[in-house]
Amino acid sequence: MNGITEFLSNNFSSCVWLVVIIVAMIPTLESKIAIPLGMNTAIWGGHALSPFSAFVFAFIGNIIPCYIVMLLVRKIKQHTTMVLHSKFFQKYAIKGAQIERKNNFSKYLALAGFVSVPIPLTGVWTGSLIGGISNLNIHYSFASIVAGAFVSAGIITILCALFSNSISYIFIFSLTIIIVFMFIDLIVGIIKTRKKSGN
User: Model-level pTM?
Assistant: First the structure.
């Protein structure tokens, strides 16, 4: 961890905003990691971003991939039905179907709510995959995801501002939680695959 900290502070101190935007664009990490990273004085010293700046740059980076991902998934879906049956997209198709069953306004509110919860395996990338693979209106889905991303980034920024003395711990804890969730998700996926192949 010290090596990464030194590398970041030595090479990117003058453009912390760019690091925040790039990290916010990465699936799973998004603003959950980008905001505490940008505000972290242990890494950046005096170059650390203010809560407002960290929020703005993380939010911008977070929503950049959204429309592209939805359009790409929608295009793939139009040209092949295999995407709906693939193991990778199956869970997003199931979640999309659950959201689609709600009435017109509630379905987009549900998508926004899903994206707004700042925990692993939710967020803009997951919301974009759901929006792309489902039959939801792509423009309304985009607006819902942007609203959810705004709320999520706001929650994280407020937490980081309230506990600014513990920002390094928040960063490490958030990163650890994401790794643990991804590991559990991988294990569950392997178990489900083995059960299906056993049947």
Answer: 0.83
